[in-house]
Design a protein that fits this description.
The complex is a heterodimer of chains A (about 325) and B (about 325).
Chain A (H helix, E strand, L loop, with lengths): L7 E5 H15 L3 E5 L13 H9 E3 L4 H13 L3 E7 H4 L3 H9 L1 H4 L9 E6 L6 H4 L4 H6 L4 E4 L3 H13 L4 E6 L6 E5 L11 E4 L4 E5 L3 H14 L4 E5 L2 E3 L3 H11 L2 E8 L4 H12 L9 E5 L18 H11 L2
Parallel strand pairs in A: 2-3, 2-4, 4-5, 5-7, 6-7, 10-11, 10-13, 13-14
Antiparallel strand pairs in A: 1-8, 6-12, 9-11
Helix pairs in contact in A: 1-9, 3-5, 10-13, 11-12
Chain B lengths: L4 H26 L14 H8 L7 E4 L5 H5 L4 H8 L23 E4 L7 H14 L5 E6 L6 H12 L5 E6 L2 E2 L2 E2 H4 L16 E5 L3 H16 L5 E6 L21 H8 L3 H11 L5 H24 L21
Parallel strand pairs in B: 1-2, 1-3, 3-4, 4-8, 7-8
Antiparallel strand pairs in B: 5-6
Helix pairs in contact in B: 1-2, 1-10, 1-11, 2-8, 4-11, 5-6
Classes of the chains: A alpha/beta (about 325), B alpha/beta (about 325).
């Protein structure tokens, strides 16, 4: 990880996202935020922004996700740079605006318009929120051309990637994983941004590559600790952005280790992990010494009971098991 | 009485331009030169022209699937519109949009949507942009009676009303969504009545009368520019052709009576305007004939331009996806 300044602060991912938005709103008056209950900062990352920037630039919206996610398109089309705060579970009712307008408008109109929009999408899985609220549907937005998809796994990446997302001139889906938003990490004092499409090796290793996304990164790191005690050297690679995807970094890592475990918290079928497995199968086949292991959420809806929900997702244990399987 | 001759003649010119453009489109569809779906605006010209003449060039509008008329009414380039319908590289959208997705940002057209109701939130967002940027540009989403049943319409009108955004919601009630009469599909008697639920003005206008449309939209625009919020205008009109050109061949059960179609054709918006200009002494038959002839030449030229234009090169397939490009496969 590249940390430059000697001056750093230990802050949560939520605070890092808040700082990124605050600094970009100070830097560029075209940036504004809208969403539900953001003036009161109910969900954390937007806390205090209304007090600094006022209710014109920090706008509370009615429960009309299709209208305000679509209004973001119109505002962007006329020169504004909206940030929309929401969650994957609420995007289903806004899919027409997201797909028919945000993703297609630029191409369909022959490049006449730029749409600099950040759609911030929370993932509420892992907290007994049951089937409706626990959606993790980011692979769907990889499937739809026109979105960039960003998924930060720590405070440093979160702040640097959010700044880039706000400065980018296309619709960006910014995934915010509630299982890690409270985790602390070092963030430099100085201004910095992280380019899209550049993966980061979170832990170097030589025997097996574990590609992990968002909240799966800390679980993969925990698995790597366990594996190290067994003499297995696991490399943990975080793509950080899924569109664009740093294919070369993944292929380079697999070329070094010869083994691949892909992990994400989307449902297994057509997951980000599936796409990464397919890329390595096509372009990294001759590096592979064992079949690829793909981990994801079971293809069931998320049950409420604490006896059942944890069985859905990859864990440090199942990640370690998958890594061991590549070495059998 | 409106006595601005320049304005009245320009209304006629734009309505005739739409009519002759659309008549040419029918020929080109029949000849197979235009492929895919095409939805004729013939019969509804006064709605778009009356409304757009009440707007400034820098005001915004969005359209729908039946929207060849709106770019012309807003003053857009006819050559580029025709080229787009033929899928040519010189088209408004470089051949990537076609009949249902004309857009011309140079004259404030934020684009047309084949998914109905879908571009209404876009127009509301453009109006939000006006407020945040501190200018007085108004946004007009054009949509039909069918789209007024979409959630996007109701969410958008509420959002614009609570934020007092400069939007003129313009419903072109041509009375049929494909084959479904609005009388069966809309719970209120008039679509304009729906404004009551959002505490904004709602006006029912004769959509065959371009001056009535112009006056109603002018009042709504003045209100919007003054920061008093949105309005809903229903232009009651009629489409002479079926939902989509060629659909008549596959619709098995008649959904409207021939007598009804004939009755509405007797209230043709272009004839109404011409007769008024003549009877009020605002124009001579010679002046009117000159507009017809000049416009026919313009449409012929546009057709020739579109035909002679090149198709997009294969490389164009991967262009225009992103403003900040990324690798695509």
């Amino acid at each position: 990880m590249t940390q430059t300044a000697e001056q750093t602060r230990n802050i949560t991912l939520t605070q890092a996202l808040n700082e990124a938005m605050r600094e970009e709103m100070r830097r560029d008056e075209r940036v504004f935020i809208m969403g539900e209950d953001i003036q009161s900062g109910v969900y954390g990352a937007s806390a205090g922004l209304a007090q600094e920037f006022g209710y014109e630039r920090v706008r509370d919206c009615p429960l009309s996700e299709n209208a305000f996610m679509g209004a973001a398109v119109g505002a962007a089309a006329v020169g504004m740079r909206p940030i929309v705060e929401s969650a994957f579970c609420f995007m289903w009712v806004a899919m027409d605006s997201l797909v028919s307008q945000a993703s297609k408008m630029r191409y369909m109109f022959g490049g006449q318009v730029d749409l600099p929009i950040v759609y911030r999408a929370s993932l509420y899985y892992g907290g007994s929120m049951a089937a409706h609220h626990s959606d993790r549907s980011y692979p769907l937005f990889m499937h739809i051309p026109g979105f960039k998809v960003v998924f930060a796994s720590n405070s440093y990446d979160g702040k640097g990637l959010m700044k880039t997302a706000i400065r980018d001139n296309d619709p960006v889906l910014f995934c915010e994983d509630r299982t890690i938003l409270g985790a602390r990490g070092e963030v430099p004092e100085d201004d910095y941004a992280i380019p899209l499409g550049v993966a980061d090796v979170k832990r170097e290793g030589t025997d097996v590559t574990i590609v992990a996304i968002g909240g799966m990164v800390p679980r993969a790191l925990e698995a790597a600790d366990t594996l190290a005690q067994e003499g297995i050297s696991a490399e943990v690679l975080d793509p950080r952005t899924l569109v664009p995807l740093d294919r070369q970094a993944i292929l380079d890592s697999v070329a070094k280790t010869g083994r691949l475990v892909t992990v994400d918290m989307a449902h297994k079928t057509c997951s980000a992990a599936s796409e990464i497995a397919a890329i390595v199968a096509m372009e990294g086949f001759w590096s592979l010494q064992a079949p690829v292991q793909r981990l994801g959420t079971a293809n069931v809806h998320i049950p409420f009971s604490t006896a059942l929900e944890p069985l859905c997702y990859p864990t440090a244990e199942t990640i370690a098991d998958a890594a061991r399987a590549t070495l059998e | 009485m409106l006595e601005d001759k320049t304005l009245l003649m320009e209304m006629l010119r734009r309505m005739v331009r739409i009519r002759l453009f659309e008549e040419r489109v029918i020929q080109l569809v029949e000849r197979g030169e235009i492929v895919g779906a095409a939805h004729s605006y013939i019969g509804e010209e006064a709605v778009a022209v009356g409304a757009c003449m009440a707007l400034r060039d820098d005001d915004w509008m969005t359209g729908n699937h039946r929207s060849h008329g709106h770019p012309i009414a807003k003053g857009g380039d006819v050559n580029k519109a025709m080229a787009e319908l033929l899928g040519k590289a010189t088209g408004l959208c470089k051949g990537k949009g076609g009949s249902m997705h004309l857009a011309d940002f140079s004259v404030g057209i934020l684009g047309e949507s084949g998914i109905l109701g879908s571009s209404i939130p876009t127009a509301v967002g453009a109006a939000l942009g006006s407020v945040l940027q501190g200018n007085d540009r108004v946004a007009v989403p054009f949509f039909g009676d069918g789209a007024s049943n979409e959630g996007a319409f109701h969410e958008s009108i509420n959002l614009a009303a609570i934020w007092k955004l400069p939007v003129v919601f313009l419903c072109e009630n041509n009375q049929y969504a494909v084959s479904s009469s609005f009388k069966k599909m809309v719970a209120s008697e008039n679509i304009s009545d729906r404004s009551a639920a959002y505490n904004i003005p709602g006006v029912l206008v004769d959509g065959q009368d371009c001056i009535a449309m112009y006056e109603a939209v002018s009042a709504a625009v003045a209100r919007a520019r003054a920061g008093e919020g949105p309005s809903l205008i229903e232009g009651r009109t009629y489409r002479y052709y079926d939902h989509s050109l060629g659909l008549g061949r596959i619709v098995r059960t008649a959904y409207r009576e021939d007598e009804e179609v004939e009755l509405w054709k007797q209230r043709d918006p272009i004839n109404i305007h011409k007769e008024r200009l003549l009877s009020q002494g605002m124009a001579t038959q010679k002046e009117i004939d000159a507009i017809d002839a000049e416009t026919q030449r313009q449409i012929d030229d546009a057709t020739e331009f579109a035909r002679q234009s090149p198709y997009p090169e294969p490389e164009a397939l991967f262009e225009d996806m992103f403003a900040d490009p990324i690798p695509l496969e």
